[in-house]
Amino acid sequence: DGGITQSPKYLFRKEGQNVTLSCEQNLNHDAMYWYRQDPGQGLRLIYYSQIVNDFQKGDIAEGYSVSREKKESFPLTVTSAQKNPTAFYLCASSMGSGGASEQFFGPGTRLTVL
Amino acid sequence: AQSVAQPEDQVNVAEGNPLTVKCTYSVSGNPYLFWYVQYPNRGLQFLLKYITGDNLVKGSYGFEAEFNKSQTSFHLKKPSALVSDSALYFCAVRPSSNTGKLIFGQGTTLQVKP
After folding, report:
1. What is the pLDDT of residues B51-95, one digit of tens each?
2. Sequential DSSP letters for A57-75
3. Looking at chain B, which residue has its C-alpha nearest residue A99?
């Protein structure tokens, strides 16, 4: 899992609540990413950030929000607008945002809506 | 549409036998290709990548992958499987013109039996 930490490991949310997932990296990477993983569907990109104070929507951004105020931090907020938020959430980072740079992943946060 | 396909949901092999996990892709240009492994309730770990040059790429834990441009494939291989190789494997592609997004396959579960 390298130098990327995610917290909490498990998170339970009641319907209608917003929750924030933490992602921190000490790899000095410029780019950071949030993915959602559901069984049998692989990983789907929610948001990504190539540099501080800038981020772009991925393929499934609706119901989610992010911020990138510091290079090492990229928190994800799951809002009440996300209709089916129960999933495994993975944060990743890479040295650059393109080319051959591989992404390094955190250990994940499992979110369950009660 | 750009996509990655892993045609087998599960691959079963006996310990000591060679293994192959298949991956084909449909992207424009000359893509960068990656393989990742995921153990239960963990993040993804990088195994290897193809950038350019030799079609046979060697990676971590004795794994290798063969790039075939004409067949648009990037199959993962290992000469002798271990029980500890049992995990979920993901193929990913980044189009050469892309700003950083990875396109993931849906994953293949590898089961190595003693």
Report:
1. 888 899 999 999 999 999 999 999 999 999 999 999 999 999 988
2. E-TT-TTEEE--SBTTB--
3. B96
Contact A107, A17 (CB under 8 A): no
Q: What is the mean pLDDT of each run of 10 residues along chain A (114 residues)?
A: 86 91 96 92 92 94 97 96 92 83 93 91
Quote the tokens at residue A90. Answer: 């993975």
Instruction: For residue B90, give both structure tokens.
Output: 């993901």
> What is the chain B residue with the closest CA to A90?
B43
Q: How many CB atoms lie within 10 A of CB A96?
A: 13
| DSSP per-residue codes, chain A | -TTEEEE-SEEEE-TT--EEEEEEE-S--SEEEEEEE-TTS-EEEEEEEEETTEEEE-TT-TTEEE--SBTTB--EEE-TT-S---EEEEEEEESSSSTTPPPEE---EEEEE-
B97 pLDDT band, cuts 50/70/90, is low
- Arithmetic mean of pLDDT over chain A: 92
CA angle at B25 for the pair B24 and B30, rounded to the nearest 5°: 125
Distance CA B65, CA B55 (A): 8
Q: B-chain residues within 8 Å CB-CB of A43? A: 44, 90, 102, 104
Round to the nearest angstrom and report the end-to-end CA distance of chain B. 41
Owner of token pair 């080319």: A99
Place of tokens 């959430």: A89
What pLDDT, on the 0 to 100 scale, is given for residue B29?
Answer: 81
